[in-house]
């Protein structure tokens, strides 16, 4: 070690840290304060539209994890397929969104909700009834820009004044 | 742009120096005999005008009838590249010469190929499993590994 | 050692082996260094890894070309966008798919943002390894957060983006992206200056990092080092310039190189690269055209039989994908040229003779991501 | 050993005085340590753009208490092949001296346990006993990290004692007494102004002795996990933790007493002056820890022997000469002279100072 700079470097560093005492921290206190997630959030659930789905199974083929199970039967009266079972194991799902992209009938969405911790593994298995869209389970705008426009604006750190450098 | 040298041109040069060593040459790659790999690699590295001083990647492929090891060579000096290949047909005990002496890049990569494909590299200073533990049975990247 | 000099007290010492890792605060993942120490001096070091080996290359062989993209996210988890892009470049080369102009620009913007985010992490953790207790890393993670916000806006995730697609990107950028990015570009140089003030001239850092862990030029080339590690050793080699992929030939930027190849140079090169990335970003958003972001690509891509090696200059070095196609919907062979895996080759050479504290520093300066090393 | 016993009219002779003061000091030390832990975490957090503890109590003030409770009910793990007795004894040996130092620290005009006429000597002697405990911990844990950490600590303390003591001698020359009370009484001008170089050297050396950043090699978390404490858990770890902060408190108190005029100050009550100064000194320690990286072991040694020691000797020489040749001169005249001396010496030595061996050929 040479003190060719006579400790000026250390002094400069000390000035940077002490200046931070005057700035507000950027931390958000999570359960009380919440930030808006991105409009395209790939939340931890899948939401399925019963009416639009034709049971083609493209989503199950697109899923490389094999988290989507779908079985269909033929409805003799209307002469079309009917989805018997539609199950997603969100414990296996990696939320890559490839199934949403693959769906040709706009019947599958990712959710806007990101708090999906469960106490039991069984609760992670979502079936037909659990996967419908409700006011509490909002649909994310991932791959559906029209839906994204309706969601609240994402809170960004660049827009936030906290933790700002005071302009020199 | 890095100029991808044609395997055919290089094959001509190598044929002059080491007759009978080139098995196959295409526009994008050059397949040489396994036994003469080391000499050809040394030639490619040390010949002025070629100067392949940088070994980008070593990959092993299992084609079921043979194993192919692909060397992506680059010359930082002249900014050109070449794909060099070598094959070994013995499925039970595939052996190729190691190029660690020329490019030490190959050290870990050859170990990885040994680990996952089971190709032994002769002359490698420390050939042992790298990703899997000692005593693991089989070589997972082989196509017949289930 | 039988060389006893006259009139010198010979204390009989014995080297001992210390296992650094697999679970150690500063091994950046599950990495193990088996060090043979003589007191504090490292006599020899053997890297041991594979604790995070998931067999990604085997997994990819039974997935379609599109569904391999999420797998690449999980290689280098600090720079998944670059991994996505490298893989897509390789598939596009293999199948001969063209990319729309706007998508190319978006790709460049995202890749450069990713480079900044990754370098922030690298530099921050390097300084943390020096013992600057958490301060630089927390400052830098704060700025990384701003970038992650942008990525979140674009693709809906903060870590595993899965954004690039073969033939473009998955979705167009939202309209609020560019204003936010402009704001970020305006602020970022000031933040960088602040980091420089914090530790760049710090005497202790200079004493710790200058001249430590030197990787000489010839060895760096022979070892196949790439990225900032290679450039810090004085080799002006950047694939963005040497073999311009995507549209990098349209931008003006410098390639920062080091002189000595020591830890301090590697740190400096990364900081300078961040500035150059900001420069590229400014040019890219100025010229960003309108139009499609994804060319027409079949759902299941079936490239012709053949092979391709696609590479790019990732934040950690040359990231390459060697793909072999047998004409089916899945790659026949999927090999990753992981930059950090190859940079590790030189680790033992750099460490020998230095002390334990230096070992941590040297290890931090080559910026390892174990997800990529083990695959 | 002659003691100047304080308030003589206590009931029950001196025993009551000792008993009461001992309890008061223990409570003071524990409370201050808790406050310091909170202060360090909180101040550091704000300087790192975070919040720090803010849940337990107002501003998170009860966080250290909560941590202490948690640590008390943790399982006590003893490594299988450790030396159990030494392993058990080490935290005690480390903690006791740190508290003992406070026996001679004056909180007020007469408020101290014992005004030893060799107060400073006592402080220097007692405070270095802590490393025995640390070395016991390192050795008995049967862990390589612990041993390395303990070895580093012993090496650094042995080296840094010398410049620390030498820089204190300058103060003693000025005050004309070894007693802490007398030193405070002598500070009409705080000695930091009269002994700027001495203060710099003492502060640097003291940081190394209590292994605070940038000299925290003993428990360098990025290298040695937690150094000598790696194998400790539960309340034994808690005691080491307490000892570490008690030492920091002791050093802050000594700096306050010796260089900053102790409890002396206008308007406010003396004990408040004392506590205030101690907190400020500790804040500076935290501030430094937040900013600077860590030194390497050989650089640590070089700094002690090549930088601090010669400067401390020169400082002693200059102070002694000043006192010998200008006994009658006003102390105010010495302030600019001493500051000039400090600047010249530090700049000069910075030029001369060079580090030796970095890499060793193996």
The largest β sheet of chain A comes out as: 3 strands, antiparallel
Radius of gyration of chain C using CA atoms only: 22 Å
Order of helices and strands of chain A: HEHEEHEEH
Total beta strand runs of chain C: 8
Number of helices of chain C: 15
Structural class of chain A: alpha+beta
Strand order of the largest sheet of chain C: 1-2-3
Percent in strands of chain A: 15-25%
Number of strands of chain A: 5
The averaged pLDDT of chain C comes out at: 86
Helix proportion of residues of chain C, in percent? 40-55%
Any low-confidence stretches of chain C, pLDDT <50, length ≥5? none
Supply Rg of chain A: 24 Å
- Residue ranges of chain A: pLDDT <50 for 5 or more in a row? none
Mean pLDDT of chain A: 80
Outline the fold blueprint.
The complex is a heterotetramer of chains A (168), B (146), C (375) and D (362).
Chain A: H1 8-19, E1 46-48, H2 58-62, E2 68-75, E3 80-89, H3 98-102, E4 108-110, E5 125-126, H4 145-150
Antiparallel strand pairs in A: 1-4, 2-3, 3-5
Chain B: E1 3-4, H1 7-17, E2 22-25, E3 30-32, H2 37-46, E4 54-62, E5 67-75, E6 80-88, E7 95-97, H3 106-117, E8 120-122
Parallel strand pairs in B: 1-6, 3-6, 7-8
Antiparallel strand pairs in B: 2-3, 4-5, 5-6
Chain C: E1 16-20, E2 32-38, E3 41-48, H1 56-60, H2 69-73, H3 80-95, H4 101-130, H5 135-155, E4 164-165, E5 168-169, H6 177-200, H7 203-209, H8 217-222, H9 228-232, H10 239-242, H11 263-287, E6 306-314, E7 317-325, E8 331-337, H12 339-343, H13 347-351, H14 356-365, H15 370-374
Antiparallel strand pairs in C: 1-2, 2-3, 4-5, 6-7, 7-8
Helix pairs in contact in C: 3-4, 4-5, 4-11, 4-14, 5-6, 6-11
Descriptive account of the structure:
The complex is a heterotetramer of chains A (168), B (146), C (375) and D (362). Chain A has 168 residues and is α+β, with helices and mostly antiparallel strands. Chain A has 4 helices and 5 strands, in the order H-E-H-E-E-H-E-E-H. In chain A, a hairpin with a 4-residue loop joins strand 2 and strand 3. The longest helix of chain A has 12 residues, at 8-19. With 375 residues, chain C is an alpha+beta fold. The longest helix of chain C is centred in the first third of the chain and has 30 residues, at 101-130. Chain C is globular, with a radius of gyration of 22 Å. Chain D is mainly alpha-helical and 362 residues long. In chain D, 66% of the residues lie in helices and 1% in strands. The chains are: A alpha+beta (168), B alpha/beta (146), C alpha+beta (375), D mainly alpha (362).
């Amino acid at each position: 070690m040479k003190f060719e700079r006579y400790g000026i470097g250390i002094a400069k560093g000390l000035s940077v840290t002490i200046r931070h005492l005057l700035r507000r921290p950027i931390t958000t206190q999570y359960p009380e304060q919440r930030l808006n997630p991105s409009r395209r959030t790939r939340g931890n659930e899948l939401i399925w539209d019963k009416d639009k789905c034709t049971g083609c199974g493209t989503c199950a083929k697109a899923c490389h994890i094999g988290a989507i199970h779908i079985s269909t039967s033929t409805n003799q009266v209307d002469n079309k397929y009917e989805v018997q079972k539609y199950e997603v194991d969100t414990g296996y799902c990696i939320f890559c969104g490839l199934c949403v992209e693959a769906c040709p009938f706009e019947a599958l969405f990712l959710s806007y909700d990101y708090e999906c911790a469960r106490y039991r593994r069984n609760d992670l298995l979502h079936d037909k009834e659990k996967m419908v869209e409700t006011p509490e389970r909002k649909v994310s705008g991932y791959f559906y820009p029209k839906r994204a426009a309706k969601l609240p604006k994402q809170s960004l750190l660049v827009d936030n004044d906290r933790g700002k450098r005071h302009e020199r | 742009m890095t100029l991808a040298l044609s395997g055919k041109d290089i094959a001509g040069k190598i044929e002059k120096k080491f007759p009978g060593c080139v098995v196959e040459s295409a526009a994008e790659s050059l397949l040489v005999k396994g036994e003469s790999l080391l000499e050809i690699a040394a030639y490619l590295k040390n010949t002025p005008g070629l100067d392949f001083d940088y070994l980008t990647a070593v990959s092993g492929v299992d084609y079921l009838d043979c194993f192919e090891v692909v060397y992506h060579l680059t010359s930082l000096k002249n900014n050109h590249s070449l794909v060099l290949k070598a094959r070994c047909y013995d499925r039970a005990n595939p052996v190729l010469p190691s190029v660690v002496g020329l490019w030490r890049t190959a050290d870990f990569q050859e170990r990885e190929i040994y680990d996952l494909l089971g190709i032994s590299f002769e002359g490698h200073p420390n050939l042992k499993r790298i990703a899997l533990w000692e005593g693991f049975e089989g070589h997972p990247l082989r196509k017949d590994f289930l | 050692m039988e060389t006893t000099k006259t009139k010198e007290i010979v204390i009989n010492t014995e080297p001992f082996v210390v296992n650094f890792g697999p679970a150690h605060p500063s091994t950046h993942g599950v990495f193990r260094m088996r060090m043979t120490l003589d007191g504090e001096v490292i006599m020899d070091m053997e890297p041991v890894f594979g604790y995070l080996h998931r067999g990604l290359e085997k997994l990819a062989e039974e997935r379609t070309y599109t569904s391999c993209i999420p797998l690449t996210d999980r290689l280098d988890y600090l720079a998944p966008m670059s991994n996505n892009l490298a893989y897509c470049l390789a598939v596009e080369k293999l199948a001969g798919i063209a990319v729309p102009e706007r998508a190319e620009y978006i790709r460049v913007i995202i890749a450069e943002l990713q480079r900044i985010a990754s370098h922030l992490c690298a530099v921050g953790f390097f300084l943390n390894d020096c013992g600057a207790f958490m301060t630089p890393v927390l400052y830098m993670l704060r700025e990384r957060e701003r970038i992650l916000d942008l990525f979140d806006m674009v693709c809906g995730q903060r870590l595993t983006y899965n954004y690039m697609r073969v033939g473009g990107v998955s979705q167009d950028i939202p309209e609020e992206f560019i204003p936010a990015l402009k704001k970020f570009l305006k602020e970022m140089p000031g933040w960088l200056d602040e980091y420089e003030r914090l530790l760049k001239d710090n005497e202790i850092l200079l004493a710790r990092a200058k001249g430590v862990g030197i990787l000489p030029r010839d060895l760096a080339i022979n070892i196949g080092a790439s990225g900032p590690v290679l450039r810090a050793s004085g080799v002006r080699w950047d694939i963005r310039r040497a073999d311009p992929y995507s549209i990098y030939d349209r931008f003006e930027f410098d390639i920062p190189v080091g002189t000595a190849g020591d830890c301090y140079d590697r740190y400096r090169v990364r900081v300078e690269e961040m500035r150059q990335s900001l420069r590229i970003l400014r040019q890219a958003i100025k010229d960003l055209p309108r139009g499609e972001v994804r060319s027409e690509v079949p759902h299941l891509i079936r490239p012709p039989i053949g092979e391709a090696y696609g590479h790019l200059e990732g934040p950690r070095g040359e990231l390459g994908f060697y793909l072999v196609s047998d004409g089916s919907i899945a790659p026949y062979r999927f090999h990753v040229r992981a930059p950090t895996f190859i940079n590790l080759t030189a680790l033992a050479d750099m460490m020998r003779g230095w002390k334990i504290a230096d070992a941590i520093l040297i290890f931090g300066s080559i910026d390892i991501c174990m997800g990529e090393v083990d695959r | 050993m002659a003691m100047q016993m304080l308030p003589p009219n206590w009931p029950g002779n001196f025993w009551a005085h000792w008993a009461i003061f001992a309890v008061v000091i223990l409570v003071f030390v524990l409370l201050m340590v808790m406050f310091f832990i909170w202060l360090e975490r909180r101040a550091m957090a704000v300087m790192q753009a975070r919040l720090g503890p803010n849940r337990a109590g107002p501003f998170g003030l009860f966080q250290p208490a909560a941590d202490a409770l948690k640590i008390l009910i943790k399982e006590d793990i003893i490594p299988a092949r450790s030396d159990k007795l030494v392993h058990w004894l080490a935290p005690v040996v480390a903690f006791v001296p740190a508290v003992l130092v406070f026996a001679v620290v004056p909180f007020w005009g007469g408020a101290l346990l014992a005004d030893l006429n060799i107060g400073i000597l006592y402080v220097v002697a007692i405070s270095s006993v802590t490393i025995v405990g640390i070395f016991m911990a390192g050795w008995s844990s049967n862990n390589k990290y612990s041993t390395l950490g303990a070895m580093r600590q012993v090496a650094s303390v042995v080296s840094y004692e010398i410049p620390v003591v030498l820089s204190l001698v300058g103060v003693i020359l000025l005050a004309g007494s070894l007693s802490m009370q007398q030193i405070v009484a002598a500070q009409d001008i705080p000695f930091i102004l009269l002994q700027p170089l001495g203060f710099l050297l003492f502060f640097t050396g003291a940081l190394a002795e209590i292994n605070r950043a940038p000299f925290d090699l003993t428990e360098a978390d990025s290298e040695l996990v937690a150094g000598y404490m790696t194998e400790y858990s539960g309340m034994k770890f808690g005691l080491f933790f307490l000892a570490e902060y008690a030492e920091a408190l002791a050093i802050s108190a000594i700096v306050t007493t010796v260089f900053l005029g102790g409890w002396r100050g206008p308007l406010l009550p003396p004990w408040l002056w004392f506590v205030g100064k101690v907190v400020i000194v500790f804040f500076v320690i935290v501030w430094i820890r937040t900013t600077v990286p860590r030194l390497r072991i050989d650089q640590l040694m070089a700094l002690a022997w090549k930088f601090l020691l010669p400067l401390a000797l020169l400082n002693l020489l200059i102070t002694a000469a000043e006192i010998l040749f200008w006994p009658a001169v006003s102390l105010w005249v010495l302030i600019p002279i001493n500051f000039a001396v400090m600047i010249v010496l530090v700049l000069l030595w910075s030029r001369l100072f060079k580090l030796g061996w970095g890499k060793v050929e193996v």
